[in-house]
Design a protein that fits this description.
This protein has about 80 residues and is of the alpha+beta class. The chain is built from one helix and five strands.
Length: about 80
């Protein structure tokens, strides 16, 4: 199942064009780089819903925590785990 997962923006890299805007997003301790092209209003500290590497929209912290807890309960967070080294 493909779901959007909430995460908190840690940092942002502005590209030379708006479509190149990227950021580091923390998903409960796992950080990944995602595209912020669709969320130009997003700032560090904001929570975003991310699907296949793209932040789709900004959500408040309470909503992000509620979604994350439900995904965790359903066992849908496996793709966020870092590979074993």
């Amino acid at each position: 199942m493909c779901l959007a997962v909430p995460g908190r923006i840690v940092s942002i890299e502005e590209g030379s064009e708006p479509m190149l805007r990227r950021g580091k997003v923390d998903f409960g301790g796992v950080q990944k780089e995602v595209s912020l092209a669709f969320t130009p209003e997003a700032a560090p500290g904001d929570y975003v819903l991310v699907h296949v590497g793209f932040a789709l929209n900004v959500v408040d912290e309470a909503e992000a925590q509620r979604i994350f807890a439900e995904l965790e309960r359903l066992g849908e967070l496996g793709e966020l785990e870092e590979p074993a080294r």
